[in-house]
Amino acid sequence: MTEYIQSDYIIQINANLNNQIIYDGSANPPVWGLSGGILTNTDLSDDDITIFFPETTTPVLFGTVDAGSIETGYVGEFDVIMNISTTQNGRINAVGDISGENVIATVDDKQHYAQYVYWSNDTTIPSGGGGFGFGGGGRDGRLGGGFGLGGRPSGFDENSADVLTKSLSSNEVKIYYQDILNTIAGDISGNNVLDSWTIQLSSTPVGENNITSYARDISAVDNQLFENGQSVILDQSYQLFLTIQDVNNNTQVLVDYTPVYAVITHYDSGASFL
Predict the structure, then answer these.
(1) Is the dihedral of CA 204, 206, 210, 212 positive or negative?
(2) Coil, strand or helix: which one is 48?
(3) Strand order of the sheet with strand 118-121?
(4) C-alpha distances in angstroms, 184 versus 62, 177, 180?
(5) How far is it, in rounded angstroms, from Cα 102 to Cα 168?
(6) Which of 143, 162, 219, 252 has fewest C-beta within 10 Å?
(7) pLDDT tens digit sequence for 147-190
(8) What is the DSSP string of 212-225?
(9) Other C-beta atoms within 10 Å of 178: how many?
(10) pLDDT tens per residue across span 59-115
(11) Beta bridge partners of residue 82, listed in sequence order
(12) Closest CA to 199 of 6, 17, 19
């Protein structure tokens, strides 16, 4: 029925094991057996389930943000990353991030222009996940406008010194897209590593078996072999394995193959196997 197995990763449930024990006192000496059955996650309350699963964090590419100029085209890009975590209690969480080296925009110096390079969001730039463009400048004393990251600084006029280079950091892009990142992360977070599971007890015919040996060791006289709070661990494990596809359809492993065992803790008030 059970062996002594050491495992860091388990699904532990509270159930009535004694209801599954079969006792034949007419035999000499008495013998015992086990009635098989199953319990699923939907048969039990949350208070009767404890999960210990691997804790992992995996960065997964969800898209890119292009940075460039309508005039000069692509300058650089940033990766949209979801850091997806699995928790000890079997939940999935995600936190969005933007990664990549600074992208630097540079324009040529033009005579008779007061030039200030700045970054602004520009949806006309072709991109899988969004884009940033740079621009600015004015002619004959007139200043170019702008919005978004940076923008034309207060006090900049036709007499100001030119600013011909502007850097765009991943953190600035993250701030700009924070609401979108939070929405994506929210869709992922809160899901379960396993949506459903079943714990199965196999039947053991009444007779000379390990259940009978255990019953005799404790001098049992009926089917009440287990005390409240006493646990057994089943000897057959389930191989837990969880993956996700990134934006390029590459498989990313969130939880590598990990044996998970079922632990049943007896309580007289616990659910019976069906």
Answers:
(1) positive
(2) helix
(3) 92-99, 73-86, 56-69, 131-135, 118-121
(4) 9, 11, 6
(5) 5
(6) 219
(7) 233 344 555 556 666 666 777 889 988 988 899 999 999 999 99
(8) HHHHHHTT--SS--
(9) 12
(10) 999 988 887 765 556 778 889 999 999 999 999 999 999 999 998 877 776 766 666
(11) 60, 96
(12) 17
Amino acid at 161: A
How far CA 198 is from CA of 21, 40, 201, in Å, comes to 20, 4, 10
Instruction: Judge contact between 94 and 83, C-beta under 8 A.
Output: yes
Angle at the Cα of 130 (from 125 to 133), degrees rounded to 5?
A: 45
Pair of tokens at residue 269 = 């008030």
What phi and psi, each to the nearest 5 degrees, are found at residue 23? -120, 130
- In terms of C-beta density within 10 A (0-12 exposed, 13-18 middle, 19 or more buried), how is residue 56 classed? middle
Task: Give the mean pLDDT of 237-257.
Answer: 94
